[in-house]
Amino acid sequence: MNPKEAFQAFLYNSIPLIKKLGISIETLDKESVTTRLPAADFNKNHVNTVYAGIQFTMMEVTGGIIFASTFDINKYFMVILSMNIEYHKPAKGELICSCSFSEADRVALMAELDEQGKARTTLSMELKDKADITVASAQATYYISLRK
């Protein structure tokens, strides 16, 4: 099983809702991740666009994946503290979410974790439709700590 498949299996086992929604990992490396939400009737709201809560879920889990692919999840845990979302256009059909975390940011965060045992970091996510139009973007602040 390659790392992408392993994280997909971990994601589906640890957060069953992600499997139900059909969110899948499209690309994954140490500095970036993209996820995909398929078009589905159960993802729609009363005006036939993708429900805002599902867009939030997709962006939040994408940030979680970049963390899990960067840090030892047996040593550290991460939870979201806040997320500021801007909805730019109605989201319809299949969606793609991207998030990146640079090596320089990772090194700085690791130094803070080594020194204090905990840290906060902010990640940016972008949600696009199949036509590559940005439908939403977000800034999420996460808390990271050593497991006790």
UniProtKB/TrEMBL annotation:
One GO MF term: hydrolase activity
Keyword Secreted: no
InterPro entries reported for this sequence: DUF4442 (IPR027961), HotDog_dom_sf (IPR029069)
CDD domains documented for this protein: PaaI_thioesterase
Domain of life according to the entry: Bacteria
Enzyme Commission number(s) from the entry: 3.1.2.-
Presence of the UniProt keyword Protein transport in the record: no
Cited Pfam families: DUF4442
Name of the top EC class for this enzyme: hydrolase
SUPFAM superfamilies: Thioesterase/thiol ester dehydrase-isomerase
Gene3D superfamilies noted in UniProt: Hotdog Thioesterase (3.10.129.10)
Keyword vocabulary terms for this entry: Hydrolase
Protein name: PaaI family thioesterase
